[in-house]
Amino acid sequence: MSERHPILITGAAGEIGGVSRTMVDMLLEQGHPVRAFVRQDDERAHSLRRAGAEVFVGDLLTIADVTAALKGVRRIYFSMGLSPYYTDAVSLMAAAARAKGDIEVFVNISEYEQSFMTFDDMTAPEDERRARLGGIVANWSPQQRAHWIAERVLEWSGVPTVNIQAAFFVENPIMTWLALGSLADGELRLPFGDHRFAPIAGYDVAELCAKILADPAPHISKSYALTGPELKDGHGFAEDFAAVLGSPVTYVPEDIETWNETYVDTHMAAYPHIAEHLKTLNRIIGRGGYGGITDELETLLGRPPKTVRWALENHPRIRKLAAA
Fold first, then answer.
1. For 35, how many CA atoms within 13 A lie in the half-sphere containing its CB?
2. CA 173 – CA 265 distance, rounded (Å)
3. pTM of the model
4. Distance between CA atoms of 24 and 48, rounded to whole angstroms?
5. Per-10-residue mean pLDDT for the chain, 324 residues long?
6. Domain-embedded: residue 56
7. Which residue ranges does the record assign to the NAD(P)-binding domain (predicted)?
8. Is residue 176 part of a domain?
9. How many CB atoms lie within 10 A of CB 216?
10. Is residue 77 a part of any domain in this protein?
11. Domain with 292 in it: what CATH number?
12. Do the beta carbons of residue 110 and residue 166 sit within 8 Å?
């Protein structure tokens, strides 16, 4: 790739180890120029500059900023934190990319749920939707709906797109923040019952996205549903936490709504959009509506996905807890 065409990475000011920031480091190491889109010119922006990235400071909800950020760009990775304005931001980026006319690829970070959120399922009678999602909820969260709309917008835009439909991240706050308090007592309290699913490591998603951005042609117009390597229940997660922390951990399944009230409502009261998404995820996972496993990541990367244990070992918050 010519140095005249930097790769645009949004969401780049996330924490070290986050998907966007990991991608920035990977692409720079491979010799690709990177333009990191950030909201504030703070220490995280300075860290990106020190790593070798060009930093663009702007607002994803301002079309003038988005258009300016695309100057000279041919390849885009789009990510944004959970937000009630998520669809707006994707639509603005798609509109700017379409107007530019020479975009080679728009890599869209999406969700595993999108691989089975079909139009027919979403428009089925309420009792059928409820049964499909495990019996507690009849509708997806506002964030899940936003990702579904975003995929449709990108399809309609005509911009060459790749959808990365990533499963529940090991690094999700449910696993690596909200659930940590009880670990001091040797307990992992989660609202998943005995249901199994396959969380994915953020590192794996970053590596695949970086690979697509470096050579997009084989992937255009495709959607990849990605999971971790193994279906696990709460007992399996407890074993992983125990191995990383070096002390016994027992899984204690909790009632879904009790857990949501105790952990999500308490810690996310100021962020109702995020709270509703996390609570809906718990309701779906805790009633078996989120199972399944794919081999797409192994096929694309030529290696097995990283394990839950590996992701926990490499998570800053978990490392800090293990060292305490």
1. 21
2. 13
3. 0.95
4. 8
5. 79 79 96 97 95 98 98 98 97 98 98 94 95 94 98 98 97 91 92 96 98 98 98 97 96 97 95 97 95 95 98 92 86
6. yes
7. 17-216
8. yes
9. 18
10. yes
11. 3.40.50.720
12. yes
